[in-house]
Amino acid sequence: MKKLIFSIYLLLLAFNLQAQLHFVEKGNLKVGIRVYKDQTEYPIDSLCDGFEPETNLPINLIIPEGSSVGFNTDSIQSTDIALVLNNKVQYINRPKSKMNGFSMSSSPGSEQSYKFIDERVGDTLTISWKVGYATLELSDLYPAEYFSNFVAYQFQNIFESYPDSSQYNWAGVEYIHELNERGIPVDPEFPYEDNGLYFVIDQLTEDAKVQLIGFHQEPQVYDPENPFSLFLYEDLPAGNYTFYVQPFEGAPEEISLRYSFTILKPWWLETPAIIGGTLIFAILLGSIFFIGYRNRQKKQQQQLEWSKQLSEAELKAIRAQLNPHFLFNALNSIQNLVSQQKNDTANTYISKLSKLLRKVLASSDSQFHELEEELDLIKVYLELEQLRFSFSSHINVAENVSKSALVPVMLLQPYVENAVKHGVSALGKAGIIQIEIKQSNNTLEIDILDNGPGLSKPNSDSTGLILGEERMHYLNKLYDGDASVELRNRTDSNGVLVKIKLPLE
Fold it and tell me: Greater confidence, 474 or 424?
């Protein structure tokens, strides 16, 4: 009776299999394929990208995780058919045996193929598929000290797949602030004394790789004998970690598991020790730099004093340019022009005098300004003096000189005034004043030349030159002695040469 029932079952099974088969064929080879899981049939066309026109073979067949593949070879006509499985040849049709059975699917992510060979004519039919894999998730997480309780629980509660929710109550832990849908902490920060964890994963393949990033230098080989994929880590140092699991060799990142957590530093590294160490370091560092700081402070005070003295000298020089004698001569010239009814010339004289006074007063609060501003001031001054004396003037600036270079305010005026007063004032239209500006390396060179009678005696009676020499003395304090001024008779013709050298920053 049992044999009869079993035979009927096989017949029904064969009939059901035949009804659900997708056939592929080549020559005398014709094989039926069926994919099912938990008594659910999957249409082959829903699992692949299409079929090869000649053989009807599925293209890129991916079967669901946990499903099985069945084959039927009843339609094969030849009696010399070999099946190649795992590089081993198995005859399935000699003499008249058929392959009517099911091949269980392999581990997720793996690739399998069955090859049928008609040895008489050499036809080959290869059926290949890949097992799909769902996104890997962390099934559970326990403190390390819970390990013995967990093992006991496993022996008492044997199950095929892991429960849908965490078996450990993380909601009752005070330092856990957020849980995911399984009840597992999200980005937790564990105290240093709770520095051991026990990870549980539901499923892994034999070629899976596991790595605790921050602890392991490289991925670890998974032990397939490990039940439910259990991983215990104890006495972890403080730091940031990521529990990373690659479910199978070459698995894409989107289905791999990454679980991040932090082990906090102990209290003696977070507060007193750090503060104490910082204080000691600060004291030592302060001691090392104390002498240097005092030296820098003295140097800064000295530079401030030099700067103050320089400012005083500049103020004296500016006041010297506006001395009563200069103003008296200017106003007297304007009066003479008015009395001669040369009103246009007088107005021009007044306008230029006003422009000069504005420029001088505008620069009285600054120690330095751009070379272009200094040359504009000198041009106005020369134009003003040319109303009284009929000399000519020329200012030449070399192409490599930047007019934005900084120079001391009113640097040139005392020397130009001296050239006018003692050099060309008596020559009329024959008098010539030239200003040549060039740059050599990082030094600005300014030559002031006139064609007057030259130096017959020391210029001790020139207040402007005395103040200019005083200011150059204090400029050298700032320029480390690199600034200089030289007055001497010209060697190429009559007159005086004033050579000024300034370092460029």
Answer: 424
Strand partners, 198: 142, 232
Tokens encoding 16: 């059901």
Binning pLDDT at 50, 70 and 90, where does residue 139 land?
confident
DSSP letter for 379, please: H
CA distance 102 to 39: 13
CA distances, 19 to each of 33, 70, 72, 458 (Å): 11, 12, 11, 128
Q: Which residue stretches of 363-434 are H helix?
A: 371-386, 413-419
300-503 has which fold?
Heat Shock Protein 90 (3.30.565)
Domain spans of the chain, in order of start = 2-131, 138-268, 300-503
Q: What are the tens digits of pLDDT across the range 179-208?
A: 999 999 999 999 988 889 989 887 677 778
Q: Are 138-268 and 300-503 in the same CATH fold?
A: no
Please state the three-class secondary structure of 211-228 as a single string. EEECCECCCEECCCCCCC
Question: Could you say which of 1.10.3470, 2.60.40, 3.30.70, 3.40.50 is the CATH number of the domain covering 138-268?
Answer: 2.60.40
Output the pLDDT for position 23: 92
Ramachandran category for residue 480: left, alpha or beta (phi over 0 → left; psi -120 to 50 → alpha): left
Q: Residue 102 and residue 114: Cα distance in Å, rounded? A: 12
DSSP 275-332: HHHHHHHHHHHHHHHHHHHHHHHHHHHHHHHHHHHHHHHHHHHHHHHT-HHHHHHHHH
Q: Which residue has the tokens 């130009």?
A: 416
How far apart are the C-alpha atoms of 38 and 34, rounded to whole Å? 13
Amino acid 253 reads E
Kindly indicate the confidence band of residue 12, based on its pLDDT and cuts at 50, 70 and 90. very low
pTM of the predicted structure, to 2 decimals: 0.41
Instruction: Taking residues 282-299, report their average pLDDT.
Output: 76
Over residues 202-250, the pLDDT tens digits come to 767 777 889 999 999 888 887 777 766 788 898 899 999 999 998 877 7
